[in-house]
Design goal:
Length: 123
């Protein structure tokens, strides 16, 4: 089921979400200080392409809290709002509800990407 879900997700919003994460990563990588943040954006862009069969586990520490605050002020809010808007559009139909759930998972990840670890549930 997750393979079919990922294919449909890619067509109806996953590619646009991945492009937005990729662009955010490119902007962060302009400076040397932002390269670790950009690398995290590239990881999350790959998650945005195929979110079915993956779960996010949060393991926060002091450094991740500081990075999440900086991230939230600079890039987190626009990405989260884009994912929430996508979730609202997807939730209009009954068929789109599982996809809206994945979009909301990505919105939460857009607000707190540091300290998050992606685990695979289909293996």
């Amino acid at each position: 089921m997750s393979c079919l879900g990922n294919i449909i997700w890619f067509i109806f919003g996953g590619l646009a979400g991945a492009i937005s994460w990729f662009l955010a990563g490119c902007l962060w990588c302009i400076t040397i200080v932002g390269i670790p943040v950009g690398k995290q954006c590239f990881k999350l862009a790959s998650m945005s392409l195929a979110p079915f069969g993956k779960e996010v586990v949060y393991e926060g520490n002091g450094v991740s809290v500081i990075l999440n605050i900086i991230w939230l002020l600079v890039s987190g809010i626009p990405l989260a709002l884009a994912h929430v808007a996508s979730a609202i559009l997807l939730a209009i139909t009954i068929i789109g509800i599982p996809f809206a759930s994945q979009s909301l998972k990505m919105a939460r990840l857009a607000l707190m990407p540091f300290g998050a670890r992606i685990i695979y549930t289909d293996r």
